[in-house]
Amino acid sequence: MSLDLFFNPRSVAIVGASREKGKVGYEILKNMIDAGFPGDIYPVNPKADTIEGLKCFPNLDSIGTAPDLVIIVIPAKFVPSAMEDCAKIGVKAVVVITAGFKEIGPEGLALEQKVSHIARQSGIRVIGPNCLGVIETTNKVNACFGGDLPIKGGIGYLSQSGALLAAILDMANSRGIGFSRLVSIGNKSDVDELDLIRSFGEDPKTKVIAGYLESITDGTAFVTLAEQISQKKPILLMKSGSTGAGAKAASSHTGSMAGSETAYGCIFTRAGIIRCGSIKIQFDYAQAFASQPLPKGPSVAVITNAGGPGIMAADAIEQQGLTFAKLSEDTIKKLAEKLPAAANVHNPVDVLGDALADRYQFALDVVMADPNVDTILVLLTPQAMTDATETAEAIVNTSKQKHEKPILACFLGAGKIRDGVKILRQGGIPQYDSPEGAVATIKAMSEYVRWKARPKRVVKLFSVNRRKVENIIERNLRASNREIGEMESKEILEAYGFVTPKGSIATTAEQAANIAKQLGYPVVLKIWSPDILHKSDVGGVKIGLTSAKEVMDAFDLMMYRIPKKKPDAEILGVLVQEMCGSGKEVIFGMNRDPQFGSLMMFGMGGTMVEVLKDVSFYLAPITQDEAKQMLVSTRTYKMLTGVRGEKGVDIDSIAEGLQRLSQLVTEFPQIQEMDINPYVVGPQGTTPVAVDARISVEKV
Amino acid sequence: MSLDLFFNPRSVAIVGASREKGKVGYEILKNMIDAGFPGDIYPVNPKADTIEGLKCFPNLDSIGTAPDLVIIVIPAKFVPSAMEDCAKIGVKAVVVITAGFKEIGPEGLALEQKVSHIARQSGIRVIGPNCLGVIETTNKVNACFGGDLPIKGGIGYLSQSGALLAAILDMANSRGIGFSRLVSIGNKSDVDELDLIRSFGEDPKTKVIAGYLESITDGTAFVTLAEQISQKKPILLMKSGSTGAGAKAASSHTGSMAGSETAYGCIFTRAGIIRCGSIKIQFDYAQAFASQPLPKGPSVAVITNAGGPGIMAADAIEQQGLTFAKLSEDTIKKLAEKLPAAANVHNPVDVLGDALADRYQFALDVVMADPNVDTILVLLTPQAMTDATETAEAIVNTSKQKHEKPILACFLGAGKIRDGVKILRQGGIPQYDSPEGAVATIKAMSEYVRWKARPKRVVKLFSVNRRKVENIIERNLRASNREIGEMESKEILEAYGFVTPKGSIATTAEQAANIAKQLGYPVVLKIWSPDILHKSDVGGVKIGLTSAKEVMDAFDLMMYRIPKKKPDAEILGVLVQEMCGSGKEVIFGMNRDPQFGSLMMFGMGGTMVEVLKDVSFYLAPITQDEAKQMLVSTRTYKMLTGVRGEKGVDIDSIAEGLQRLSQLVTEFPQIQEMDINPYVVGPQGTTPVAVDARISVEKV
After folding, report:
1. CA distance to partner chain A, nearest, from residue B345 (Å)
2. Which residues contact A290 (CB under 8 A, 6 or more apart)?
3. What's the fold here for domain B466-578?
4. How far apart are the first and last CA of chain A?
């Protein structure tokens, strides 16, 4: 069901409306009235005749019609009965402001479940409980106790923290930042972030979706929807509870488990969500996304009336990995013709301290027309002659006339630029209090553009022997084996098109030497025991054996030494395996996140990478492009392409391995965790080998 | 000479005082008067009788006494003659506001040199030219055209950009941030950052030194002084022109070369300077340093009236590497006794949305007394019942009574918290607009505390054969050799106590085999040519040779192949060298920065580190502690201590090698650049070997 009734109701009832100033039941009623809500408002309170001049009803029933939207502010224990009243008269949208539900413990949870039950039974959509309310600026709905109706604008906001929303409202008003809608989602008993993102996505007045989340209700659905919506409009999220300390606070706060940081990183990347580290950053970004066109490329030109801030902007552009625009010859010539001799006609264009609006206007027009420039940042410091107001007007006019390239402004100062800043804001020019903040915003816009232009997601399906894997997994699960043995793990890999080293198990030294002879030297010996997971830790791996004597010695030494280290381990023999060709070792992995599903991992092999924790994650199933992205996003990627004249390895074959693994773990949700380590890859055209694997399974 | 006359003059003359509003000569005079400057003000202007009621003088001479401070605002070409007037009557302090000097090119530079010449001859100290002026708040000196006298406070500010200073003044006034002094240093023809940092360091009213710099005049002197001053009070600097793009803008702006980013990183670390990435961050830090005590440790407790911001703060504390305080049992018990049942009595302490000032006060007192807590962050969001004003008063009172632990506040919002924020600011409680900003500040304070507590810098002096090195370097310089050959490089290393591999040069294959036999196998062969710097690139290194045959083959192959690759190289033979024991390879290096001297470099060996650019720099001479710090600050440091049961290497012997290198490059400024690569280091107690070295020298 659509959420339209929340944002565009013809009538609103407030159950628990109060005459007492300061009480929530009064404040919400007053806010609705003051907002100029054009529909009917029904205060419901058996103890009052009128409130603020409006006729008061003893109960919902007595209104005689079903209000489009009902706001409930009575104490928690009476909420279920109010919900029943709503159901009876056919109400379809309810906001429960009242706190005292899931967040206070088992007792509250039971009450909340009662409310949900009634809602589901009668098809009522519920926002809350334990929330601040709902705001829609165009339709003048201020069913919220956060203060005055905010300025109209293009930002739709949802917040899992009511208190934070209140602070945001307060800040936004003072900064002139406008909203289309704001929703405090409280305990999310029914309407959750997913419903709201969908609804905001469909709302033509909402240009940017922004929000603060502590948890996500349905991981998989969230990713799918967010990816669709991001393609249409940017989603800017603050997500807290990410680190250990924060997550602990989150669980004591909302009673919901916060997802792991890695998983959130993956889904935000996949879904194109722009993550914001603070409210300020979110405001910084939202302003620009809401009012400016997206940049066509990464190149930024700066216009300034002072050298210092120009340098600061140039530094920031370089640090963010954007391009410091090289102005065209033509631009430089034009600028030089009209600007004073002392001006800098290269980027950053310095129009000098005595620049009035006309000089800014001229420079802006010329730079705007330069094909080498994608985004323009205008800096202004208040100097003796500076006219911030007229300069702001010039910028606003240019932006309106030529709305092709984004223009951002950074007027530094306070009182002396205040009026100018007001004009910028009203004119849709995002204004920043530091060059660095503006440049970070340009970076976020560029990243979003890059994400939007990503190749279409086509997940390649390889032809595999699915039945075989199914049999192995089923057999292990029936035997209550959570860890699949090395031999069967390899069979699984082979069924999915991986090449694994040849080899067999020997139980005597002579047999080992025999197998080695058949495989051809050199060979590897590995201890063979279901109880030993980390073989090398107990001396259970010996590589590069080149003769029968070496094989037999190694066999006997393992058999003698390992039982001393691991007396309880059942040792079934020793695996004699062919030695792989030389190449680089990489690691593949998969971890199943309870909320978001399979997280694929890639990393370079070897201990140094372990020290660096240099791995990348991505949500399965992955495309070829994403598989390559996983490689590129490790710091050690260059090692694979070859350094210092060393030949590179076959990148495509690594990407293919990741895609095959992705298919395997997607088709078998029983696989909870797995590693292919090492995956040895040689130069272009050679076949990589999956040397070792670990697979854990569970019934699903 | 002290700069006292600039900050505490008894009389001020303004040469170029004007009656015309908007003119600099008027604005400065007006600012001096409005500031309430208690001394005499002498406007100098031959065309006026009085300005703003003050008697006007036709020239300096006619005043009849030498004013303590003269401000010059007349056109550039007249400035030298005004300077001569100053010299004649015995003026000792002059601020030249006028622009049109060094910054406009050769002509301006000549004029500036004239001014400097007069100043030096007559012992006049000059601030500027091309600057905004000077402010001292207690003595009511506002010899600046930046607007009203700012609020009194503990921050001393110096800026190399006048425009930026104007913006800062405007912002600071609106945020209630107070200053002791502000100086626009302009072209730094005489008084520079060093003079000002010294002067601010001695000024008891200045608690924090802050500034914006684009270049540093005297690198070595700066480091020495800044390190001394940092020990007394924190120095917070914005330094721009750091990246390529920024540096280019800097040189076109101020005509001064910006130092390299690496060098600035080194000197800031060494001198304990706190680097700020933006004006906002600088304000954030300066506020806290100016008014709060330093924390005793890294542990932070949070008090909040809303869950969301509490989680955000907890996340930020973890991300910054601070400690999220674990409250003592006693604290938890006390909090639980008086706070409502729904409150969170663990960190972050949630006093709930309906908390009034008394509840905040109580929680603050209890948490403050907890020995596990070093710093307290108080968060407030404006909710229905919230009283920001009284809460602010409670925080201010607590801070004043128990000024032992730093308290920072983050009141989120705008209008609803405005009065509260004002009280916080007046009461010396730093206020932040996001939990993240507050936590970043706590981090900066902790880092400063850690820096202050660093061990005393004692540079160890090894007994070395200095004479020998001197001879080698002199010999090479006489022969115009910039690159010292491998054999002599090793002699230099040995003279400074490094162990190098044994070996000699062979000119025939038989000779090579002979040398190898004497050294003992295995050996290494290296091509021997003054023209080949990167031997392995041309196949000029062959390691692990174990027999006469292998040695002779390798010799002949080099002699046959290398001349084809490098036809112009003069090949003197092949070096036959003993092969070093196994161990980890690290790299030492030194680069001489033209401004700051020798920058020591340390990194792990191998290509992966090259890909990662994982190296650390430090300014020579280094102490043992600093040498170890160089190791620890690489990301790959753990590789040296041993991972996965692998044995670690002798860390102390690496640190010693770095100290020996530091002594070498300090004692021989002729060495412009050098590498020891690899420096092979084995387990504890073994002697590391400096396998190869490259030394470039120059006459100094």
Report:
1. 11
2. A153, A154, A155, A178, A207, A208
3. Dna Ligase; domain 1 (3.30.1490)
4. 31
Residues in chain A: 700
Model pLDDT for residues B60-91, shown as the tens digit of each residue:
999 999 999 999 999 999 999 999 999 999 99
- A171 to B413: CB separation less than 8 angstroms, yes or no: yes
Q: Count CB-CB contacts under 10 A for residue B449.
A: 16
Q: Count other Cβ atoms within 10 Å, centred on residue A557.
A: 14
The Cα of A521 is separated from the nearest Cα of chain B by a number of Å equal to: 23
> What ipTM was reported for this prediction?
0.81
CATH for B293-452, options being 3.40.630.30, 3.20.20.70, 1.20.120.1200, 3.40.50.261: 3.40.50.261
In the sheet with A523-528, reading across from the earlier edge strand, the strands are A503-506, A573-578, A523-528, A541-545
Contact A175 B104 (CB under 8 A): no
Strand boundaries in A45-188, DSSP class E: 50-51, 54-55, 69-72, 93-96, 125-127, 133-136, 141-144, 152-159, 179-184
CA distance linking residue B601 with residue B603, whole number of Å: 7
- Angle among Cα B444, B445, B446 to the nearest 5 degrees reads 90
Instruction: Quote the mean pLDDT of chain A.
Output: 91
What is the b/e burial string over B277-297, where b = at least 16 CB atoms within 10 angstroms of the residue's CB?
Answer: bbbbbbbbbbbbbbbbebbeb
pLDDT band at A365 (very low <50, low <70, confident <90, very high): very high
Q: State pLDDT tens for residues A158-178.
A: 999 998 998 998 888 888 889
Helix (H, G, I), strand (E, B) or coil at A254: helix
Cβ pair B384:A416 closer than 8 A: no
d(CA B700, CA B694): 19
The answer to whether the Cα torsion of A574, A577, A580, A585 is positive or negative is negative
Residues 6+ apart with CB under 8 A from A263: A219, A593, A595, A596, A599
Least confidently predicted of A464-468, A673-677, B320-324: A673-677
Tokens, residue A400: 């309106």
Evaluate whether the domain defined by B4-288 bears CATH number 3.40.50.261.
Answer: yes
Residue B541 three-state SS: strand
Contact criterion met (CB < 8 Å) for A315 and B417: no
**A4-288 and A293-452: same fold?**
yes
Indicate the DSSP class of residue B189. Answer: S
CA distance B69 to B92: 7
| Rounded Cα gap, residues A453 and A474, in angstroms | 42
CATH of domain A584-697: 3.30.470.20
How close A298 comes to chain B (CA, Å)? 15
Chain A residues closer than 8 Å to B318 by CB:
243-246
Contacts of B162 in chain A (CB under 8 A): 306, 353
List chain A residues with CB under 8 Å of B244: 318
Residue A137 per-residue DSSP state: T
List, edge to edge, every strand of the sheet that includes B523-528: B503-506, B573-578, B523-528, B541-545
Cβ-Cβ contacts under 8 Å, A167 against chain B? 309, 381-382, 412-413
pLDDT at B220: 87
Domain assignments of chain B as residue spans, ordered by start:
4-288, 293-452, 466-578, 584-697
Residue A415 to residue B280, Cβ atoms within 8 A: no
Q: Which residue has the tokens 């800014």?
A: A360
For residue A161, the chain B residues in CB contact (below 8 A) are 306-309
Q: Considering only the top CATH level, what class is A480-578?
A: alpha beta
How far is A387 from chain B, CA to nearest CA, in Å? 12
Cα–Cα distance, A336 to A342 (Å, whole number): 10
* Per-residue pLDDT, B253: 37
Size of interface A-B (CB pairs under 8 A): 254
Strand partners, B602: B588, B616
